[in-house]
C-alpha cells in the first residue's frame, strides 16, 4: 500500500470529475492525475497514426513508442504526447467518440494502469477516471463517486464545446453520453462501477465549489 495520500474520484462522463479533482488538488496541494487524458492521448495517437481502431493489437503496439506526460503549466495541467502538447487536441469530438473503445482494450489498460500506480507511489495524488477506486487504486486513502443525470451532463458538455468554439447539438451530445454510459458500464475490462467503499455525490444540482467543499470536508474528517 502506498505511504502517500491517494484520493480516487470515479464517475461517468461529464459528472464533473476532472474539474473537481483539479480544484481539490489546488486546495490541498496534491498532484492531479487525469487518467482520462492518458486514454484520450492514446486515442488521438491511434487516429493520427491511421490504425484500425477495432484492432486491439495494432492500437496496443502504438504504446511501445508512446510517451505520455502530465505537466503543470501556466494555464493549468498540460498533456504531452511524444513531446507534443495535446491538451486541447485530446478534447476534440472525434477523440471523445472513440476513447471508450480504446480504453476498453485490456493491453492498453494494463500499460496505462501500471504508469498510474507508479505515479501514486511517488507522491500525494488525486486521480480521476472510471476504475480508479476499483482497479487502479483499490487501497486508496479515500474514494468518491460523482454522478449526475445524463441530461445535466449533456448540457455541461454542450456548453463546454460552445466555449471552445466547437459546433455541437445538445441532442447529439446527450445521445453520445448515453451510449458511452452503456458502453463503459458493460465493457468486459474494468467497467464503470461504484466502489463499495466510495462516498457518492450527486452533482446534478450542485455547483463545482459545493462539490469541491464536500470532498475536502470528507478528506479532512479522516
UniProtKB/TrEMBL annotation:
GO terms for molecular function: ATP binding; CMP kinase activity; dCMP kinase activity. It catalyses: dCMP + ATP = dCDP + ADP; CMP + ATP = CDP + ADP. InterPro entries: Cytidylate_kin, Cytidylate_kinase_dom, P-loop_NTPase. CDD domains: CMPK. It is found in: Cytoplasm. GO terms for biological process: nucleobase-containing small molecule interconversion; pyrimidine nucleotide metabolic process. Residues 7-220 form the Cytidylate kinase domain. Coiled coil: none annotated. One of its GO terms (cellular component) is cytosol. Its EC number is 2.7.4.25. ATP binds at residues 11-19. Its main location: cytoplasm. The keyword Transport does not apply. The keyword Nucleotide-binding applies. Keywords: ATP-binding, Cytoplasm, Kinase, Nucleotide-binding, Transferase. Belongs to the cytidylate kinase family. Type 1 subfamily. HAMAP family: Cytidyl_kinase_type1 (MF_00238). This is Cytidylate kinase.
